[in-house]
Amino acid sequence: MYGKAFAPEYQGALTTLSVNAPLADVLAAGTEQMQEAVRAGRTAEAARTGLAVAEAHRRLGHVQDAERAWKASYRTAREAGDPAGMAWALWSGGTLARQRGAFPLARRLLALAAEVGERAGDVVVRGYSLAGLAETGRIQGDYEAVGRLHEQLLDEARKRGEARHTVWALEGIAQMRRNTGQYDSAHALFAEAAEISARAEDRRGHAWALRGLADVVSVRDGDTERALSLLSEAEATCREMKLKSALAYNLKMRGNVLYRAGRYAEARDLYGEALAEFREMTEPRGETLARLGLAKALARLGRDRAATAAELAELARLTERIGLRHAREMVAEAQAEFVADEEVSA
Question: 13-22, 34-43, 178-187: which has the minimum mean pLDDT?
Answer without folding.
Answer: 13-22
